[in-house]
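REQUEST FORM: STRUCTURE PREDICTION
Request ID: SP-0412
Submitted by: Lab K.M.
Chain count: 1
Length (residues): 154
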Amino acid sequence: MMTKENKNQHTHRIAVNAYLLRAGKFLLLKRATDPKIWVPPGGRLTVDENPEMGLIREVKEETGLDIAVIEPVNTWFGQWKGNWLLSIDYLAYAKTAQLTLSEEHLQAYWVTLQELEKGSPVKLQDELGFGLCDFQQAWKRHLIHISDHSTTNF
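STATUS: Completed
RESULT:
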């Protein structure tokens, strides 16, 4: 039951991430802090921030790229670093090409779905973060999107 004392308390944080495509490749970033895994760009929203605007902000901060947010692909809810987190993961397209990596990440790599399936040159760690099935789902949504919109720009 909501009481006057707890009605303004947040129950969890919200994060947004981008399965970001350009020229048929996903962008993956290697985190600079533990766990040092490959992840799509994204991060936590500020209080009351619109998720799509927050995603645009996070990607710009982490990569310098401008993006077009297409649609949600996946959601996840669980504990991350001891806090409850709701993650909304979007399909997005890079509108610019000049990548400028922030200090939050050590490396960036554009990778095809086939390379992810082979585990080379980037190996996902499903148990710690985003898994192959997440990228496969994003790729399926991409194929549907381009067939619906007759575009090959991304």
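NOTES: The chain has a mean pLDDT of 90.
Reviewed by: T.R.
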